[in-house]
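WARN no homologs supplied; continuing
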Amino acid sequence: MNSMKYILILALLTNPFLCISQTYEFFKEISCFATDQSDFQIYSGLTDITIDKFDNFYVLDKWSHSIIKLDKNKKFIKKWYSSDYKNNKKVLESNSDMRRITMIAGTRKIRTDHEGNVYLLSYKRIHKFNPDGTYIKSITDLKDYTDIAFDKQGNIYCITKYILEKLNTNGEFIENLIPAGAGKYLSSYRSLAIDSKNNLYVSNNSKWNILKFNQKENKIDTLFKRDKDSIKLHNVEDIFIDKKDNIYIADGSVLCLDKNGVYKHKISQTNEIKMYNPHSLAVDSNGNIYVQSQGNGIVEYTNNGDYLSTWGTDGQKDGCLIEPDDLLISKNGFIYITDERKPIIQKFTLTGEFVEVFLKTRDLNGYPFRIDDMYEDFDNNLVLLTRHQDHPLISVNEEGDYLSAFRHQNKKHFKAAKMNNFFFSNRRSKYIKKVRRDGRLKYQFTSIDTSQAGLSVSDFVIDTSGNVIVGFRGHSIQKFNSGGEFMHYVVNPNTNTDFRRSFRSFDTDNEGYIYSLGNDCEVLIFNPSGDLVEEIQLDGKEIPCLSLSEKIAVTDNGEFIYVTDKHNYRVQILKRTSN
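OK structure emitted
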């Protein structure tokens, strides 16, 4: 680090705000994505699947705001991200909600027409793309439709809870397709499909049946009459009609019908093959059936119901991440990662190789508890700040054995310098408290700048000397000694005019460099004098940039930087390329 430090000093002599050439580069990611992109991770509780006329697959991944396109051999073709369209104001969902900034974020269904164009149905909007992902247009100011389908002429059929309508290709209303006097059929419509003769099939969930709308004869037939048929429907999630007009229904299992609506067989979960709560399905030109199974990726069957394969993953297996939440680099050279969606702490090497599930974060009754923060004490024990009602502060040794538990008030951040002293900041607190193990207050760390009202602690770290470095949101980073006395500014508020410097998450190395996450998916590095000396743009998968919730950690020697990336189920690792 010394040679890098000399370079920085030389550069700052000529321009104190000059950014040197990048000394870090992307090294690896901790995730379940294959390096050749032939596999992918799906958080399967939030996805949809469809197949176009060429047997290409489109998988909607609402959690990462993306669409994955695969060819008929399930080889990766392309992934579309919300940020690909962020400059097109026509497709904005909401300017105020970053999680819904583009069409993919708010999508409910993904569908294709007879030309291979792709449509995304979101709240009162339909967005149209060509097969390559190029945006074509949006149809807005619609009703709150729950599903859509297309005929060969390009007309759009849409359902709400009580309505079945026909629109032209521009989204203009043509007609209401519910015949006069059919009020008895009005119910809870959810899924929609169309066959080659333009017959429409609608799930009628409150009546536990499927309605078949014959447009040519203007009549309605009912499939699966609950009081007569032996096959009972419960809660239809999806309907798919293949090229031969065979009908497939996702309803806890998969029901297979012929083109006349006659029941053929059912595909269900077995002990060996996990197909839990199928909520989306598709069928290719060969008749193979693909089921989006909650908790087990996509399960593939033959048309006769024989199991073929399972592909994609929902991140539940060991070594995978779903929502990586917090990072801890231990003194013995491992990185520990907590996950909002998995009640475990996983252990990895510094280069990202999975080691083990270090700790299952469940109480004695089997209920998971949330970890807000973790720290390593001077005895190499992990101390966990949890939301567990009875034992919110838990100490664990290197083997994962519980040592002790303490009570505390509800806190946001916590660090432990010694087992007898704990450092806390309340949620949206203006200060940090240093508290003895018996709960008595020892010191309080408050911003030296009292002229700024409403300053709150965003993050803080404790260096090897026991000094406390505190980030005050959007203002400065200040350093205090262990007794609570202000020492100096690490990043001065007079030079902090860049709105990106929120200091929501930061870390420090042994040389005193500060590594902070900016608001635009970048890592900002400050030297010990508080000058910005490097800016590293992260991999652009974050859609949109959610640095408000991401975390950063750095090794003591500054060789590796780790950044969580919840919306892409991973932790990014950056490695220094110069010394």
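Confidence is low (pLDDT under 50) at residues 1-21, 34-38, 86-102.
OK
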